[in-house]
From TrEMBL:
The protein's Enzyme Commission number: 2.7.1.148
HAMAP family: IspE
Similarity remark: Belongs to the GHMP kinase family. IspE subfamily.
Matching SUPFAM superfamilies: GHMP Kinase, C-terminal domain, Ribosomal protein S5 domain 2-like
GO molecular function: 4-(cytidine 5'-diphospho)-2-C-methyl-D-erythritol kinase activity
Catalyzed reaction equations: 4-CDP-2-C-methyl-D-erythritol + ATP = 4-CDP-2-C-methyl-D-erythritol 2-phosphate + ADP + H(+)
Keywords attached to this entry: ATP-binding, Isoprene biosynthesis, Kinase, Nucleotide-binding, Transferase
Name of this protein: 4-diphosphocytidyl-2-C-methyl-D-erythritol kinase
Boundaries of every GHMP kinase N-terminal domain copy: 67-141
Amino acid sequence: MIQFPNAKINIGLNVVSKRPDGYHNLETVFYPIPLSDALEIIVNNDLDNDYQLFNTGITVDAPTNENICVKALELIKKDHTIPPIEIHLHKATPFGAGLGGGSSDAAFMLSMLNTLFELNISNDELKKKAIQLGADVPFFIDNKPSFATGIGDLLQPINLDLSDYYLCLVKPPIHVSTPEAYSGITPKASDRILPNDLNLPVEQWKDIVKNDFETSVFKKYPEIEKIKTELYNQGAAYAAMSGSGSTVFGLFKDEPHFKVDPSYFVWSGKMK
């Protein structure tokens, strides 16, 4: 079985409050995008181990047992018997980008194991397992535009269609760690309702749909802010940083042609 775990962008991100457990309550909209990895599972009863992992594309710089696909497998194996499998992961979504690439791999791994081995796990149960792997992993189970609250795990599907737009992603060779991003944030409840704001024309989002991380991240990494400015200069209807960065995305009515230093990751394509 082969599937293509897609990435996501955050449209708007409000850090509402800090929780007693040290995490933060958020308000954001997750939107699935066409950029994707490839993930294949093959049963191989000749293996000496329970699994074998193959990685192509972007290198996953972590021990095999720490790979999030393997963690998803081990989570399923707590309650179900799975035969020896080969896991082939081709990475195209960059790490530390605010695009949820690893979370998507984990969620697709859970769903693929459920389907391939007919485990009959409901989507609600898959989401309960998914949250054990990461805050935004549950989103990729249903993989539909959603208003996310809590730590990103409380999901409410919304009616948002960006299929008329082109998406451009630009990630400089800068890694913004999550603790670093949060260190510059003062949580504050928003006086706006994000899903209502997204009912407005995309061209009106610029002044009202904000990512709270941008102020502190842009101050420390002005190069990231310059990307956002340039996306608008190139004609973006809306541009923002995704999650805690460092990817900046732009939505365009016409196909963009964004040229930057070769060390940057750049991807563009039609939304679906």
